[in-house]
Write a structure and sequence with these properties.
Length: 537
């Protein structure tokens, strides 16, 4: 090598991202004897659970269901403490996993992948990072996360604001003390709804800037009962199997009545029990929540009544009622004391649909109706979901085709895992897979295992590349859309639909045909010799 020529490190596989998906991909591919490097933009592992460390950040899937199942030893030794794990506890878990399996040395931190270009003659990918590092790899595994590309509002004058601006998705490590401050929060999705009660309890005054009211149900979070926890830990394998094979992957399948088959009184009882139990089960306590508008309306009325019961000021309660979308078509939130927070005398709710934000200056945020002097502003304004992080990388496949161009009218994938024209590039929980409509850890394990077995098959067959066939991809894209169109999801301006990003094609991004059925489909594809995939030497 000449002096001055950059050294190009060569690997069998490069994995992008060290969250749940990247960590497991690293573990699996190393176990197959591949040389592997993981690139991670942050200075530690964790992905979502590294970045989103705002007050109150907590998983909305119960902790006993939200962990890896690939290692019985790991399952035995990690003891979750609460019904819903906090961000800190999940981050510690992932740090533990990485150290326990000695994966850390394989991860290059503070390194973001910028460009991935296929070299068609060699069938290898050339990769360039923001640190100037160059790598080549036979396989690229995009474990870039579904909600990892933050979206910020464009507020004229915000650059002049002299207070501190916090982003929930980039929260600082140090403890932030809002005592004595006038704080504003923009955004009332899960992140806003989780941090608002805690900020309100600390701040002198909190102004909540709400554009769209969201449905939220109480978490009823609590320490786990040690004996119930032990019993579940002793029975992890059948429990995990039931989750994997279930429709939602959040709870084992159970027969459910249609809301419309029940009497009004039976519905009240059923919904009341789910509300009392807490968490997202309310969505799944009847069979037709997401496919029947009349059924959905009964749940909406039930939740409106709960909000009216909790929030004392009638006008404020009315402003908090979600009316623009059916329940569940935007991700339902799981909270601790969210609605009750609006009974506090130090909290103001601003309806941005009635009075939009028009600008900011050194000390304030201004709406069309009023000026709100603030010391700190919290932006909980969401993400460019599912495609944002992938398209932030300049990915070029066969004939130099750019992934961004191929996806101009919406993502096109086969099974959410592979793209025609982009051989040996795999996505973990990509668009067109259950992903965000599932228990992410279960979907991640399934995808990583699918990819690992596919690579194993390539080895056995002695082939160099694999990629989706264009025809199989088109059929899958059509199937994903057809299933979504049989639900209420397309009725909402949600990030599932790409609707939170101006100019993003309005396409339903995840697959809602069920996690168990999707797994079966992948198994059928594999058993048919990877039907729909092209293998080339
Ligand atoms: P979400 O769910 O996308 O919520 C973002 C919120 O920010 C939502 O209320 C948006 O209102 C609001 N928003 C976005 N842009 C603006 C502007 N410009 N002005 C005012 N309000 C705005 O993101 P989260 O981080 O809360 O949650 C993401 C997921 O993480 C969540 O679903 C869980 O899966 C975990 P909108 O509804 O667009 O009118």
């Amino acid at each position: 090598m000449n002096e001055g020529t950059p050294r190009v490190a060569d690997f069998d596989a490069v994995i992008v991202g060290a969250g749940f998906a990247g960590i497991y991909a690293l573990y699996r591919l190393r176990a197959m004897g591949l040389t592997v490097r993981c690139l991670e933009a942050a200075d530690d592992v964790g992905g979502t659970w590294y970045w989103n460390r705002y007050p109150g950040a907590r998983c909305d899937v119960e902790s006993m269901s939200y962990s890896y199942s690939f290692s019985p030893e790991l399952e035995r030794e990690w003891v979750w403490t609460e019904r819903y794990a906090s961000q800190g506890e999940i981050l510690r878990y992932l740090q533990h996993v990485v150290d326990r399996f000695s994966l850390r040395p394989l991860i290059r931190f503070n390194t973001r992948l910028r460009q991935a270009t296929l070299n068609e003659s060699s069938g290898r990918w050339s990769l360039r990072t923001d640190t100037g590092e160059q790598l080549t790899a036979r396989f690229v595994v995009m474990a870039t996360g579904c909600l990892s590309e933050p979206r910020l509002p464009s507020i004229p004058g915000l650059q002049d604001f002299e207070g501190r601006i916090f982003q929930t998705s980039r929260w600082p490590r140090e403890e932030i003390d809002f005592s004595g401050q006038r704080v504003g929060v923009i955004g009332t999705g899960s992140s806003g709804i989780q941090c608002i009660p805690l900020i309100a309890a600390q701040a002198k005054h909190l102004t909540v800037f709400q554009r769209t009211p969201n449905f939220s149900v109480p978490a009823h979070n609590r320490p786990l009962d040690p004996s119930a926890r032990q019993e579940l830990m002793d029975n992890y394998p059948p429990f995990r199997k039931a989750l994997r094979e279930s429709f939602t992957s959040l709870a084992p399948d159970a027969p459910l009545p249609s809301a419309m088959e029940l009497s009004a009184q039976e519905r009240e009882q059923r919904y009341g029990a789910a509300w009392k139990e807490g968490g997202i089960r309310l969505l799944f306590c009847v069979s037709d929540t997401i496919v029947s508008k009349p059924a959905n309306d009964t749940l909406v009325s039930f939740l409106h009544e709960r909000i009216r019961e909790i929030v004392k000021d009638r006008e404020v309660a009315e402003r908090l009622l979600p009316k623009t979308h059916p329940l569940g078509t935007k991700r339902m939130c799981v909270d601790t004391d969210y609605y009750a927070t609006f009974n506090r005398s130090n909290v103001t709710l601003v309806d941005l649909r009635a009075t939009p934000v028009v600008g900011a200056n050194r000390h304030s945020v201004r709406t069309r109706a009023a000026e709100f002097p603030l010391d700190s502003l919290v932006l909980a304004t969401g993400f460019d979901a599912m495609t944002g992080a992938l398209l932030a990388i300049d990915v070029r496949g066969r004939s130099g085709r750019r992934l961004a161009d191929e996806w101009r009218n919406g993502p096109r994938t086969y099974l959410g895992v592979s793209v025609a024209g982009f051989p040996n590039l795999f996505m973990i929980t990509g668009p067109g897979s259950p992903s965000v409509i599932s228990n992410m850890v279960i979907s991640i394990e399934q995808h990583v295992e699918f990819v690992a077995e596919l690579i194993g098959t390539m080895r056995a067959r002695g082939v160099d590349t694999v990629e989706a066939q264009a025809g199989a991809q088109e059929e899958w894209v059509a199937h994903v859309a057809a299933v979504a169109s049989g639900t209420l999801f397309p009725q909402a301006d949600s990030w599932y639909m790409g609707a939170n990003i101006p100019g993003k094609p309005r396409v339903f991004l995840p697959y809602v045909g069920g996690v168990g059925p999707y797994r079966l489909k992948c198994q059928e594809v594999a058993m048919a010799g990877y039907a729909g995939f092209d293998f080339r030497s």
